[in-house]
Amino acid sequence: MDKSKAFHDSALTHVTGESLYVEDIPPVHGECFVGVVVSPIAKGQLLALDPSAALNLEGVYGFFTAKDLKVNQWGPILHDQPLLVDDRIEYLGEPLAIVVADTPHLARQAAALVEVKVKADQAILDIVAAKAEKHFYPSPMLIERGDVDQQIEDAKNVLEGSFYTGGQEHFYLESQSVIVYPQEGGDILVHSSTQHPSEVQHTVAHALGLGYSQVVCEVKRMGGAFGGKESQSTHFAVLCALAAKKLGRVCRLHLSKDEDMAWTGKRHAFHNDYKVAFEDDGVIRALDIQLYNDGGAYLDLSAPILQRAMLHVDNAYYLEHARIKGTVCKTNYPPNTAFRGFGGPQGVMQIESIIEDIAFALKMDAADVRRRNLYGIESRNTTPYEQKVENNLLPELFDQIMESSDYKQRRAAIETHNQTNPDVVRGIALTPVKFGISFTVKFLNQGNALVNVHRDGTIQVSTGATEMGQGVNTKIAVIVAEAFGVSYDRVKVMTTSTEKNHNTSATAASSGSDINGYAALIACENILKPLTGYAAYYLSHPVDQRPNPILELHDYDEPDHPRASDVIFENDQVYLKGESNKGVSFAHLVDCAYHNRVSLGAYGHYKTKDIHYDRQAGRGQPFLYYTQGMAVTEVRVDTLTGDVKMDRVDILMELGRSIQEGIDYGQIAGGFIQGCGWAISEELVYDQDGRLLSHSPTTYKIPNIQDTPREFHIKLVENPTKHSSVKGSKAVGEPPFLLCASPWAAIKNALQQKTGSSVSGFKLPATAEEVLRQIYPAAFEESESRL
Ligand code: LUZ
Ligand code: MOS
To answer: Which Pfam families match (predicted)?
Structure first.
């Protein structure tokens, strides 16, 4: 198959505007719109709601509260969150009630007219304050190896400090959207922009007192998600379903960008305390670290996110002695949630910051410190949780990118440049990534697929994967097309629906193609087994004596045919080995097979083998494999304005055997730039009451084309070693995000050169303010003390 013809699922229809998102579905007659009444305070008690002014408006049909729900408890792991508040308010923007009206405008107007009486309490709006007050969720976690205390006591060099990384808004272009269609017999059909249709199905059913079988959730595609629709779409889907159920009318809920930014959870901010012991040559002896993340007002996915941060604080480095503790803080922000990397970037950024500090203390090139600490091949190759780093390409990739990026020469040139150019200083950093692939919760690592081959030789495939722009549909179609040896355009990936695929996991953890692609491949194999037997039977007749599919009913039904292993499916043809001139078209073969009553549809189930993790012990093999990569970034920092530009970025990624390279390049470039937004320019600013001030692109700075590197090289490295993942491929969705450690570390490197100090308190994001704070600390102290 010619893979260059395997376009992104939507290459054409996105461009022509034909692609349908939830909000594009034309309204039906009598459709209603849902407005959400939200809390005006971050913490307190809900005393009363008075909807009379809202209900007096012409065209407002309903007002519903917690009392209208059969079950008012939900959450992706613990059900600790009310769908609608009935007593305690935990964040500003928390849903209190819904109104239903004729138009979206009227619904918003009515929501604003509902009188809300509250009693405010003191909120916790800062992770540092939450730490000080020990405002924690229960069950802290621990991973420990070796003798950390002894090592630190005996070490010649010890650094300690605290490190902060900020949150991040997902900034998917399509806001949270849902339409609910009431069906006969009280059943419910939901069209949702969600990464997790099964969770929407289950939570809607719970909340409305229905069986799971009475609810179907469909997802055609999302306009971006990035983790922000892994759990949090569910909340709005249920609110919309409540309205539809109560009124028996089709209801729609679509957040505006401002509402979406203000009301939904974000990437977790972290604030960690650490001690590190190291040798004179830069080798780390021991790391003692306590990670804290800001969970927000409910637990959501904060515990597994913290866990993934703990499992990635080693990044690509061997830590012989390590004590890694993790605690989730409770604050009064919208519950923070999944975001590309899922805690991994926060863990990685921490160790990369430490490495820059070690390098500064030893007057070494940070790249040399990194090289010395990299996981080894024969030894020094087990993580602190004792998973062996198999198939370790880190040293090879490291040396390769040092060469191809001219790292050493450029570093020397930068140092020379900085001696004579105090206003615009430059910096460079190489950072690796080793990202663990698999859900850390074992049971999520399964998927199922349904494949239907039609009599004209076209094929439909349905899986639990949801398309959010990442190209999972393209990859699944390639896998299916290759399995049957047909061209890509014969395969159609169908709308994701809980009706076709049951009990699906969220499309998350970079595993969408791995899990669902494999399930699809297994389904194909389940069709191919009898089909191949039949093909051998059919093709072993001389051409003029082959059974006529319609006139001559034949009944071949053997499990095996002696020539089955000779059957080749290729280029839309089917033939016996060495007899390609006597082959038939795939379409002809399947039509004949149908008339012979061979099943042309099948189901496949895949589960990831050989993974396990004991959270209590902090030991195991949570990941099937690691995706590995490297980035070198050169930055220029304007020390008068604090502005940062990336002059050049080189990226090297090892993705096994790529299923579709174009998609992978897109994921690498996009993931990296999205990471740069988090690392450099995106800052969430709240007022003292917990109200998000940066709730639109005018105040929240995501990267634009001018923020991309002036020179940008991305290269894939094929790893010939066989991987156990589907077709020897490797997951790509999240790993490149973590390479944003490289520009951040390069900025830190530039600032170290500028200030002659380690800038160990340098935070993330490296906004202009943060850069200037490092250069002119006294000025900032003065202006802050005046506030
Ligand atoms: N979601 C999840 C994830 O539920 N578990 C994970 O381990 C994970 N990892 C990355 C992204 N989403
Ligand atoms: Mo996720 S952070 O939805 O893979």
So the answer is: Ald_Xan_dh_C, MoCoBD_1, MoCoBD_2
Tell whether 483 and 454 lie within a shared domain: yes
- Residue 370: CB partners within 8 Å, gap ≥ 6? 316, 317, 355, 398, 430, 431, 432
Q: Which of 203, 233, 263 is the endpoint of a domain?
A: 263
| Residues 313-350 as b or e (16 or more Cβ within 10 Å = b) | bbbbbbbbbbbbbbbbbbbbbbbbbbbbbbbbbbbbbb
How far, in Å, are 39, 135, 164, 326 from residue 294 at the CA level? 20, 10, 11, 11
Query: What ipTM goes with this model?
Result: 0.93
pLDDT given for residue 786 in this prediction: 61
Residues 50 and 86 in one domain: yes
Domain stops at, among 552, 576, 607: 607
- The answer to whether the CB of 439 is under 6 A from ligand 1 is yes
Confidence of residue 351 (pLDDT cuts 50, 70, 90): very high
**DSSP class of residue 692?**
B
Determine if ligand 2 sits within 6 Å of the CB of residue 195: yes
**Average of pLDDT values for 186-202?**
98
The tens digit of pLDDT for each residue in 382-436 reads 999 999 999 999 999 999 999 999 999 999 999 999 999 999 999 999 999 999 9
Q: Take atom 9 of ligand 1 and give the residue whose Cα is closest.
A: 509
pLDDT-above-90 percentage for the chain: 95
340 lines ligand 2 (CB under 6 A): yes
Domains in the chain: how many in total? 3
Q: What is the CATH number for 536?
A: 3.30.365.10
- Span from the CA of 733 to the centroid of ligand 1 (angstroms): 12
pLDDT surpasses 90 at 729: yes
Q: Please report whether residue 132 resides in a domain.
A: no
Domain span holding position 769: 270-375+388-440+614-786
Same domain, 456 and 561: yes
Q: What is the DSSP letter of 370?
A: H
Q: Residue 24: inside a domain, yes or no?
A: yes
Residue having the nearest C-alpha atom to atom 3 of ligand 2:
227
Query: Which sign does the torsion angle of CA 344, 350, 355, 356 carry?
Result: positive
The CA R_g of the chain, rounded to the nearest whole Å, is 28
What is the rounded CA–CA span in Å between residue 744 and residue 755?
16
Vertex 293 angle, CA 291 and 297, to 5°: 150
Q: Are residues 246 and 332 in the same domain?
A: no
pLDDT tens figures, 41-64? 999 999 999 999 999 999 999 999
Average pLDDT over residues 627-641: 98
Tell me what the pLDDT averaged over the chain comes to.
96
Q: What is the pLDDT of residues 66-94, one digit of tens each?
A: 999 999 999 999 999 999 999 999 999 99
- The reply to whether 698 and 723 lie within a common domain is yes
What mean pLDDT is predicted for residues 226-236?
Answer: 98
Q: Compute, in angstroms, the gap from residue 105 CA to the centroid of ligand 2.
A: 32
0.90 cut: is pTM over it?
A: yes
SS3 category, 404: helix
Strand ranges for 136-199 from DSSP E:
141-145, 157-165, 177-182, 188-192
pLDDT-derived band at 559 (thresholds 50, 70, 90) equals confident
Question: Does residue 153 fall inside a structural domain?
Answer: no
Whether residues 287 and 318 share a domain: the answer is yes
Residue closest by Cα to atom 7 of ligand 1: 439
- Residue 301 Cα to ligand 1 midpoint, Å, equals 8
SS3 call for 411: helix
Residue 785's pLDDT is what? 66
Average pLDDT over residues 238-263: 98
Residue 38 above 70 pLDDT? Answer: yes
Structural domain includes residue 143:
no
Residue 259: active-site member: no
- Tell whether ligand 2 has an atom less than 6 A from the beta carbon of residue 230: yes
Average pLDDT over residues 602-627: 97
Shared domain for 350 and 450, answered yes or no, is: no
Q: Are residues 275 and 409 both part of a single domain?
A: yes
How many angstroms separate the alpha carbon of residue 509 from the centre of ligand 2? Answer: 5
Pocket test for ligand 2, best of 171, 301, 340 (most atoms within 8 A of CB): 340
